[in-house]
Write a structure and sequence with these properties.
By secondary structure, this protein is α+β, with helices and mostly antiparallel strands. It has 3 domains: 77 residues; 98 residues, L1 transposable element, RRM domain (Alpha-Beta Plaits); 70 residues, Rec A Protein, domain 2, CATH 3.30.250. 53% of the residues lie in helices and 16% in strands. The strands form 2 sheets. The chain has a 5-stranded antiparallel sheet. The protein has a 3-stranded antiparallel sheet with strand order 6-7-8. β4 and β5 form a beta hairpin. α1 runs antiparallel to α8. It is elongated. InterPro entries: Transposase_22.
C-alpha cells in the first residue's frame, strides 16, 4: 500500500509538471496570436523598403565574360547599353556602380554561362526606359549571346513573381481576366468585380473556393469578390497547436480526477 501511495505521489508530481508546461505553451500561443499580425505587417514594410532601395538596380544576363577592359564593368555598360537597346536618353546615361555577381560556376563554363551583371543607375526614369524597351524588344543578341534584362527585387518579391504566373492557366480556365502590377500584385476581374492579390496563397484559396462551388453546381459567390478576405498567415499552424494543447490539458484533467 505504501508503494502504491508513493507511485501515486510521483505520478501527481509529474502531472503537475506537465500542467505547468501546458500553461507555458498556452501563454506562448497567446503571444504568437497577439503579435502575429503586427509581425506580418512589419515584415511587409521591410520587404517594401528593400524593393524601394533596389528600384534603381538592373540585372543584365548573358553579357559575355571579358568584354570589359580591365574589369571596368561600369564603363562597358555606359557604351554598350544605349547601342544594344538602340535607345537615347534625355539626360546623360550615368551609373553609380556596376559589377558582375559572384558565381560558383567553374572558369571553364563561364564562356557558355557568363556571370550576370548588376548595375545601379543614377536616374530612375532611365531604369523605367530600359526595362520598358527590354519587355518590348528583348532578349537582345550580342555576339551570338542572348542578353536578358530584368529589374532587381527582394527574394520575397521574386518568389511571388514566380508563383503568380503559375496560376494563369487556372484563371484562363475560369474565364477570369487578370494582370500583374508592379512589383508583385495580381489583379483579377470576374464579371464586373475586381480584386487585387498581393499574396499568391490568397489567390489560390479563392480559386479553390470557386472550384468547390462549381463542383456543387452552384454559381460563383460574387460577394466574395467585394468583401476582403479575412485570411491569417499560416492559420492552420496556430489552430493545430492550440488544439494539441487543449487536448493535453483535458487529458491531464481526466488523469487528476481519476487518481484523486
Amino acid at each position: 500500500m505504501k508503494t502504491i501511495r508513493m507511485d501515486l505521489n510521483s505520478f501527481h508530481t509529474k502531472v503537475e509538471i506537465l500542467d505547468q508546461r501546458t500553461t507555458f505553451l498556452e501563454e506562448k500561443l497567446d503571444n504568437a496570436e497577439y503579435w502575429g499580425p503586427d509581425i506580418w505587417h512589419l515584415k511587409q514594410k521591410v520587404i517594401d523598403l528593400e524593393d524601394r532601395a533596389r528600384r534603381n538596380n538592373i540585372h543584365f544576363y548573358g553579357i559575355p565574360e571579358k568584354m570589359e577592359v580591365n574589369n571596368d564593368v561600369k564603363n562597358l555598360l555606359l557604351t554598350l547599353i544605349p547601342r544594344l537597346l538602340n535607345i537615347s536618353f534625355v539626360h546623360p546615361f550615368e551609373l553609380q556602380r556596376a559589377h558582375r555577381i559572384r558565381s560558383r560556376t567553374s572558369t571553364s563554363t563561364l564562356a557558355s554561362r557568363p556571370r550576370s551583371i548588376i548595375a545601379c543607375l543614377l536616374r530612375h526614369e532611365q531604369v523605367r526606359q530600359i526595362l520598358t524597351a527590354a519587355r518590348k524588344h528583348g532578349p537582345y543578341d550580342l555576339e551570338g549571346h542572348k542578353v536578358f534584362i530584368a529589374a532587381d527585387f527582394s527574394a520575397e518579391t521574386n518568389a511571388k513573381l514566380k508563383a503568380f504566373p503559375q496560376l494563369r492557366p487556372r484563371l484562363r480556365k475560369g474565364d477570369i481576366k487578370y494582370g500583374l502590377l508592379e512589383p508583385a500584385t495580381m489583379w483579377i476581374t470576374m464579371d464586373v468585380n475586381s480584386r487585387d492579390y498581393t499574396e499568391p496563397e490568397d489567390l489560390v484559396r479563392f480559386l479553390d473556393s470557386l472550384d468547390e462551388q462549381h463542383m456543387d453546381s452552384a454559381p460563383p459567390d460574387k460577394t466574395s469578390m467585394n468583401s476582403p478576405l479575412q485570411l491569417q498567415k499560416d492559420p492552420q499552424s496556430h489552430c493545430t497547436s492550440r488544439l494539441h494543447v487543449r487536448t493535453l490539458r483535458n487529458s491531464l484533467t481526466e488523469i487528476k480526477q481519476s487518481t484523486a
